[in-house]
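Quick one:
INPUT:
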């Protein structure tokens, strides 16, 4: 008999503010997250794990992280996080006390590794030499365990000139490590506020929509997409195979490009 898959909900780019009714380009980010959580609650069966892949906050305030925790904790699902370019790691560590701080852990037959791709003061991403060495060691310790690696920044260009200036800057170094470990199946990320999929060797790379505003696909300059907020569901099977789909949430708002820029 095949055992049921491990179910993961990837929730990314929440961009909450200290003020709960503050908007990002007209989008009330806390309200759209709330609607998304209502949809998460209706999933049957419930996810086994929530994976928050960065930009949880827009302003890096402790209050914004308290909102994230206050809204997600009642789901009672084990929650893990990594930082994006907008986040402040030391404030996250102090504020997200009800979430798990582990960045490498095993759940049933899968290994999960969460990387920090924040390059301080920059919008683009970079994985430090120390983190790459740490990743290499984690993977070397579990050569036969199917593995999902997550980070905030995409290690590929996404065919959007403005967004492609802020992808991961040292992807070849990441690939060099991943190429040494055949158990890596998936790499998931956020940052690009759109659905994305790319195959490189045996690894599938998945980008996931934001819980708030969406970025237009294949755009030369900054532009918002009309897609609704979303998240990604992953089903991970014990034999290392997986399935994934993006779920969208019905939410409308009045775009305000004159408001504070992204
Ligand atoms: Fe980001």
């Amino acid at each position: 008999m095949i055992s049921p898959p491990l179910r993961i909900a990837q929730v990314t780019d929440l961009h909450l503010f200290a003020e709960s009714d503050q908007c990002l380009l007209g989008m009330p980010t806390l309200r759209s997250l709330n609607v998304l959580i209502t949809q998460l609650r209706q999933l049957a069966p419930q996810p086994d794990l929530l994976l928050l892949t960065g930009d949880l906050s827009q302003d890096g305030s402790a209050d914004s992280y308290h909102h994230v925790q206050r809204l997600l904790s009642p789901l009672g699902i084990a929650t893990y996080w990594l930082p994006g370019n907008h986040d402040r790691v030391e404030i996250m560590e102090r504020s997200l006390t009800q979430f798990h701080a582990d960045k490498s852990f095993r759940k049933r037959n899968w290994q999960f590794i969460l990387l920090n791709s924040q390059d301080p003061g920059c919008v683009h991403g970079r994985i430090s030499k120390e983190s790459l060495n740490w990743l290499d060691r984690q993977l070397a310790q579990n050569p036969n365990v199917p593995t999902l690696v997550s980070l905030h920044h995409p290690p590929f260009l996404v065919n959007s000139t403005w967004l492609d200036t802020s992808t991961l800057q040292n992807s070849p170094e990441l690939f060099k490590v991943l190429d040494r470990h055949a158990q890596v199946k998936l790499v998931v990320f956020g940052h690009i506020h759109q659905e994305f999929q790319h195959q490189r060797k045996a690894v599938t790379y998945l980008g996931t929509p934001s819980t708030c505003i969406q970025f237009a696909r294949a755009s030369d300059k900054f532009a918002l997409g009309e897609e609704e907020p979303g998240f990604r569901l992953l089903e991970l099977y014990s034999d290392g195979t997986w399935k994934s789909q993006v779920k969208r949430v019905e939410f409308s708002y009045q775009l305000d490009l004159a408001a504070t820029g992204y």
